[in-house]
Amino acid sequence: MREIYFDEFGPEYLIQVYDPRINMKGFLVIDNRSLGPGKGGIRMTRDVTLEEVFRLARTMTFKNALAELPFGGAKAGIKWSGGSDSLKRKFIQSFAKKIQPFTPEKYIAGPDVGTGEKEMMWFSSATNCWECATGKPATSCLVKNAQKICGLPHELGATGFGVAQATKVSAELLGIELKKTKIAIHGFGNVGTFTFKYLSQMGAKITGIADLTATIFERDGFDPKIIEKIIKVQKPLSYYPKGERISAEDFWALPVDILIPASVTDVINQNNKDKIKAKIIVEAGNLPMSEEIERELFEKGILIVPDLIANAGGVISSYCEYQGEQPKKMFEMVEKKIKKNTELILKEALKEKRNPRDIALKIAKERIKKAMEKDSGFK
């Protein structure tokens, strides 16, 4: 089991909350605020732990620094075994009130696994604070300094859009034509579905998709029109009528050029790492594997685009919402920043034959240390 550790970067706050009335157990980790208030989503899963939330908060510290955003790193988690929307709202709003002393000066919420625009609206309503969360519905607006600013919901697909941009750049750097690639995506939630959408529009062939309901291999590529209909009616992958059903374990051995883990933490592990045949792994989900496994796969010749770069589209969108930008400007910023960082870090990695994460972390740490040196007081 991984443990929380304390170092020169943090964490500043480790918070556990409990509401005995509804058995709500939640966690908040504010890791480092040298660049600004801690920014990171609220994860709602059955097995979320304080240790996992810490690992994710540390990732956000570095991710925000790499994206050159005025945010520090933070993350939240609520244990959620499922239930009605009414109960989920109670959990979100109870959690919001418990951590209210930290928002928005020290922590700004956002969507993550198990949360989206309606949950962010519930969070903001509970705290009566529009700025306490991003990823709210487009209909959620505020007039500030005579300017109307509205939510930029997770459902716009900024993270998946950014993952597609990172995928395109990494393929080009290896001399692989995207239209001739075969890609597998693990996860069919917000990030996975939008990654599919934008890569399909670029002409890539998605031949493998997995979610909790099905693992499907489609040798000639999934039909984008059928997938679009499934997404529109909010049905799981099992509703896809074609393709070959394979076991969840066999997904990792699919003959693809690019593998995109877009699901949960540590989905690539000791049990499946040796099955992977892809030339490139683009980390659409946060911490899809341990750093040890990531390094091992890199040493075997697989180019890995770390989560710190690949899935930063979500937090870049959060910054745009915080600044009152429109969707068009948001997508332009996501594309520009993701392409710039992917190219910068992968080029150096290929040149020096070093793991891209090591290079990304070096850049992020230098930026954070510089900010910490300037901040000689207490916040």
Please give a structural write-up:
The chain has 379 residues and is α/β, with parallel strands linked by helices. Helix 2 (85-98) packs across helix 3 (117-127), helix 4 (158-173) runs parallel beside helix 10 (327-352) and helix 9 packs antiparallel against helix 10. Helix content is 39%, strand content 17%. The chain contains 11 helices and 15 strands. The strands form 3 sheets. It has a 7-stranded mixed β-sheet with strand order 12-11-10-9-13-14-15, sandwiched between helices. Strands 1, 2, 3, 4, 5 and 6 form a 6-stranded mixed β-sheet that branches. Helix 1 (50-66) links the parallel strand 4 and strand 5 (72-79). It has helices spanning 50-66, 85-98, 117-127, 158-173, 190-201, 224-232, 291-299, 307-310, 313-323, 327-352, 356-374, and strands at 13-19, 24-32, 38-39, 42-45, 72-79, 107-108, 141-144, 147-150, 182-186, 205-210, 215-217, 244-245, 258-261, 280-282, 303-305. The protein has 2 domains: 13-154, Rossmann fold (3-Layer(aba) Sandwich), CATH 3.40.50.10860; 158-313 and 340-362, Rossmann fold, CATH 3.40.50. The mean pLDDT is 94. It is globular, with a radius of gyration of 20 Å.
